Amino acid sequence: MNPPIDDIFIADLHLSAETPDTVRAFFAFLAGAATTAQRLFILGDLFEYWAGDDDIDTPFNTGVCERLRTLVDHGTEVAFMAGNRDFLIGQRFSDVTGIRLLNDPTVIETAGHRVLLLHGDTLCTDDHAYQDFRAQVRNPVWQKAFLAKPLSERKAIIAQVREHSEAAKQVNAMEIMDVNEDAVRAAFLAHDCEHMIHGHTHRPATHAMTINGTACERWVLADWHGNAPCIVSRSGALSRAADLSD
Q1: How is residue 26 annotated by DSSP?
Q2: Which among 87, 93, 97 has a CA at the least distance from the CA of 200?
Q3: What is the pLDDT of residues 82-122, one digit of tens each?
Q4: Cβ pair 219, 209 in contact under 8 A
Q5: What DSSP string describes 172-222?
Q6: Cis (ω within 30 of 0) for the bond into 105?
Q7: pTM of the model
Q8: Can you tell me the mean pLDDT for 141-169?
Q9: Of the candidates 43, 40, 20, 18, which has an alpha carbon nearest to the alpha carbon of residue 31?
Q10: Distance (Å, rounded) from C-alpha 202 to C-alpha 1?
Q11: CA–CA separation, 161 vs 87, rounded Å?
């Protein structure tokens, strides 16, 4: 029997009504493995998009929120960090689900280490166009103006942005959209951590590096395609689980 799970880390589920296999895997995960953990950390892009907390009442979003609430009520602490797709998740979502909203970045203690958590997009500093876009949409003034628009208009704008983003991916070199090593080193140094966990790049791997003579590890989460890939913390160590939806 495996030892009990302390923490589970997931990211990049991109849930939508158009991804039923992933939704089923997520719901099975929430009703199963997630209930055995003390804490669940969702490091961004839980949804394919989030147009604002007034969209919480649509049947699909309500179904996801209800299952998150069930997990919280069961006793698992759930924390959420916004990604580049769902950065408009706000206080109402937190109130309805019972989850705790995290700043990006956040440092936690797990597996006997200080671990730096990020969504991961702030590390992709070579993609200057994206970083400019991120700075714009994370600005509270921009968000207030955007959320003042009718929900239908917001969804139309988001659809256009998503189309533009997909087109840009076909043009940009993959290296530009991956993390910048200098940005990674700076993040380790700024937060005095030896371990980092993030998503966003959809390139699952564990990268070892030495910073000022200290061995450090960067753990990259996988995206979800019908299964439940996670990083887990138990018995004082981090490890990968290919699928916790069974």
Answers
A1: H
A2: 87
A3: 999 999 999 999 999 999 999 999 999 998 899 999 999 99
A4: no
A5: S-HHHHS--HHHHHHHHHHHT-SEEEE-SS---EEEEEEETTEEEEEEEPP
A6: yes
A7: 0.94
A8: 90
A9: 40
A10: 30
A11: 14
Do 116 and 40 meet the contact criterion of CB atoms below 8 Å apart? no
- The pLDDT confidence band at residue 246, using thresholds 50, 70 and 90, is low
Close Cβ partners of 161 (under 8 Å, ≥ 6 residues apart) = none
- DSSP for 85-137, written as a single string: SSTT--HHHHHHH-PEEE-SSEEEEETTEEEEE--SGGG-TT-HHHHHHHHHH
Residue 147 pLDDT more than 60? yes
Q: Domain limits of the chain?
A: 7-241
| Residue carrying structure tokens 């564990």 | 206
The single-letter code of the amino acid at 47 is: F
Does the domain formed by 7-241 have CATH 3.60.21.10?
Answer: yes
Residue 202 is predicted with a pLDDT of 92
pLDDT at 177: 75
Backbone angles phi, psi at 197, to 5 degrees: -130, 130
Residues 175-205: tens digit of each pLDDT:
667 999 999 999 999 999 999 999 999 999 9
